[in-house]
Amino acid sequence: MKRTQNKGQLYKSLQAMNLIPLLILGLVITFVCFQTTASAMHAQVEEELKNMTDAVVLTYDLLYPGDYHLEGTEALQLYKGDTAITFDYSIIDRLKAHSQIDITLFYEDTRILTTICDQDGNRIIGTGANNLVVRDVLSTGQPHFYTNTTIHDQVFFSYYAPLQNADGTIVGMIYAGKPCNNVNAAVRSAVLPAMLITLGGIVIVIVISSSYTHKLIGSLQKIRVFLSKVSTGNLGAELDPGVLKRSDELSDMGYAALYMQSALRTLVEQDTLTEINNRRYADKHLRQVQSHADLCGTSFVIGIGDIDFFKSVNDTYGHECGDLVLKKVAYILKKHMTGKGFVARWGGEEFLFVYDNADLDLARKQTEELLEEIRAQEVIYEEQLVRITMTFGLAEGGVGTRMRELLQTADNKLYYGKENGRNQIVV
């Protein structure tokens, strides 16, 4: 009986000798793994939030050139250049929808624009920044990252960056934040597999943890590089596809970064009303067209089209009808130019399009088909029929073409057509 007890005691002692160090080592590994993962996640969140503040500043600079300033007598409004932005939440709301990052724009220490709402769904505009933030960021002019910021009873990972005008004057702050619960949940989820593996054997834990950490840091680095490129204005940057193949939070971060890039590209390069390319996109793409022509020795044709009597449409039927006409024309142009080149809204009721690898004869024939399709369209607005016609000016370019002069030529031909009957193509 005693032998049985001694044997059992020894078995328990051996088990304890094996299990206790293993459990201690497991706890140490778990603690270290948790701290490493949390630190990496925090660093990634900080980088992500930093890049978001950079992206917000870049977006406003691209869309509204000029300095931030207040105007008004009784009710002050914040302007960016010549544009009042006080009640325009469209940019920060779209960025949040794609990235799940909250954004706030402060003028001095007061919230002017924000995506953060109270329990009743009201935006917390007009409120002041925390005194610590004012001291750390606004007073020093240096960005700061906080891991535990309480904003209206919500706890955030927060990144504050000073907002500067062109002369370097600090006029406010840009804030980007993510709820702490979401990030902490991601950290716990990432550590849990390591804890389970530790129970199976310390060697397997070390091997798997080492491999996982290496891949984790590698993916974080790829996302960081991608976001850095986007934050500097490279909206055509590509994210390593290996990040998107992961089945964890990092793939979600990768997709969030792509959504943010897509949102920025849409804001910067797409016309909001017609949903086709805007003039900024066209200016950039025209340089590519000219470079291709110089390199390959090919020709191309630029066309500028203007909707006839568009002002009369607005005056007679209203701007909603005018918008409907613009959308209809943009849709026809986009469909027509598929596979032939590109089209963009050039301004107002004017559209610019480019036929790649084409001469004037081919472009004229294709534009005639386009004009016939436009003439055949019927826009029904409030039970009234609105007919559409357009006037086009075409100009051919090739090797060594001066793009500005070519655009002027096409515009002059368009003007000639408008002055001599409209509803025609001038080549």
What labels would you give this structure?
disordered N terminus, alpha+beta, elongated, 5-stranded antiparallel sheet, single chain, 15 strands, 427 residues, 5-stranded mixed sheet
Commentary on this structure:
The chain has helices at about 1-65, 90-100, 130-140, 180-200, 200-230, 240-245, 250-270, 280-295, 310-315, 320-335, 360-375, 405-420, and strands spanning about 70, 75-80, 85, 100-105, 110-115, 145-150, 155-165, 170-180, 300-305, 340-345, 350-355, 380, 385, 390-395, 425. By secondary structure, it is of the alpha+beta class. A five-stranded antiparallel β-sheet has the order 5-4-8-7-6, with helices on both faces. A five-stranded mixed β-sheet has the order 10-11-9-14-15, with helices on both faces. Strands 1-2-3 form a three-stranded antiparallel β-sheet, with no helix packed on it. It starts with a helix and ends with a strand.
State the helical fraction: 40-55%
Give the strand order, joined by hyphens, for the main sheet: 5-4-8-7-6
Number of strands: 15
| Mean pLDDT level | 84
Number of helices: 12
- Helix/strand-derived category reads alpha+beta
* Residue fraction in strands: 15-25%
Largest sheet: 5 strands, antiparallel
Shape by Cα distribution: elongated
The parts where pLDDT drops under 50 for at least 5 residues are: 1-15
Distance between the termini: 112 Å
Helix-strand string: HEEEHEEHEEEHHHHHEHHEEHEEEHE
Output the radius of gyration: 30 Å
